[in-house]
Amino acid sequence: MGPPLMVLTLSLFWRVGFPEALEGLYHILLKEPYLASYPELVFIGILPIIFTLVCGEDFAKYGFRRDGFWRSMLYSLPPALLVAWLRGFPKRGYGLTFPWNFYYAVLNLVAYGPLEVFFVVWLIENTDEYLGSEAIPSEGSMAVPMIFGLSHVLWAIHGDLVAAVVNAFMVSLVFLYFGVIYKYTRNIAGFMTAWTLMNRQSLLSAIQCLV
Question: In the chain, where are the structural domains located?
């Protein structure tokens, strides 16, 4: 999965152990959190796009289609809008100046929103294809969100482990719900839009880049 692969690659690049690489990445992102969009883009966002293009696959396989668009939005947007409204807007920004504020706002919004969702959907579809699963919910739409969500426990460094575990389970549950909606509607639009609104690293981080 993306986060472990990211840390493993950094450990090889920096020639340090896995824990040291994780520690180093943590301290970098603690000072400049908006930089997290770079490893997110490289290790999660771009990989499935490259594989899809190289294999000559139709992006419609992953929900990029007109059919099911409105159903996808109908089932996905209400809970996402509620969460976004309850959370509110950040009070402080990162203090970036033009043009970097716009650059990092777009980068964070895209990397942690649509591209992160495509990564998960790509894994769901290929897992189901490998297992021959056609059920709703499918094995892929159950297993992939759980593994992806729980991988977020990796970031529990110098912090509250319990809070990190709770957050990981919440991410898993959210992706389970939207993953099932995706499989039912066969459209990725609602999943992408909803997660962009709900994910702190996407919409809220983009706002912090601008203010």
Answer: 50-210
